[in-house]
Amino acid sequence: MIDSLLNLVLGLLASAISAGLGWLAHTVRRRRRLGQVREFFGLPGGTECLLVVNRHTAATSSKSVSRNDVYALMELAALVRECGAQADLVAHDQVRQGLGGKAEFCLGGPESNERTAAHLANWLPGVSFTAEPGPHWASTIAVGDETFRFGSADGTPRAYVLLARVHAGPGSRPVFLIAGQTATSNHAAVRYLTSRHRQLAHRHGRDGGFALMLRVVNPEAYGPDVVELASDVTAKAFATAG
């Protein structure tokens, strides 16, 4: 009887220790993953970051924002909250500060976001946007000798978006540029960034700059859900002319 009771107690004790160790390992892994996310995005807990809001290019009011851009901002805000940081939502023409002090997410191309235009001119001189009005108004994006046009290929509509991370200097917080041909492509790039940050960190480093052109396949049918890497244009985007 005593032996049976002792075995029962020992079994319960072993189960409790095993459960405790499993919980501890899970907690350590979760904290490590969270630390890696914070490091990649430059979002330590308790810090602030900027969400720079673009304007709706087709609207008459300078304060209008496209619905898909609002969705993208909501997903970025959720990421910031997950990291334990705080988002400061600022209009693109109201930002008056340099780079590096806070992490920054800058949404929209240069035609809808003055902050994006400044970042491209100062940090990504190899990138240019050329407006091409038409039935589906959009900018053609050129990076070095590569050109990315909004339109159809083999009958399938496609849109492109530049996703870039810029560091002003060692120890600075990163700036993420999400500059698409459409609001849907902006939203697609945000989803790509938040879902594939581990792969991006592995390839480009947790504090390295990069510039990627993403292709959004048939956005009219699939919205922001089908997005793929079109080209890694990092070297060309950061290169100066001449």
Structural account:
The protein is of the alpha/beta class and 242 residues long. It has one domain (42-238). Helix content is 40%, strand content 27%. It has seven helices and eleven strands. The protein has helices at 2-41, 67-82, 114-123, 183-195, 197-204, 219-222, 234-238; strands spanning 48-53, 86-91, 103-107, 127-132, 138-143, 146-148, 151-153, 156-166, 175-180, 210-217, 227-232. The strands form two sheets. Strands 1, 2, 3, 7, 8, 9, 10 and 11 form an eight-stranded mixed beta sheet that branches. The protein has a three-stranded antiparallel beta sheet with strand order 4-5-6. Strand 4 and strand 5 form a beta hairpin. Helix 2 (67-82) packs parallel to helix 4. The longest helix is centred in the N-terminal third of the chain and has 40 residues, at 2-41.
State the domain count.
Answer: 1
Question: What is the multimeric organization of the chains shown?
Answer: single chain
Major sheet attributes: 8 strands, mixed
Helix content: 25-40%
Total helical elements: 7
Structural class: alpha/beta
Number of strands: 11
Relevant terms:
alpha/beta; 3-stranded antiparallel sheet; 11 strands; 8-stranded mixed sheet; single chain; 7 helices; globular; 40% helix; 242 residues
Can I get a quick summary?
The chain is an alpha/beta fold and about 240 residues long. It is about 40% helix and about 25% strand.
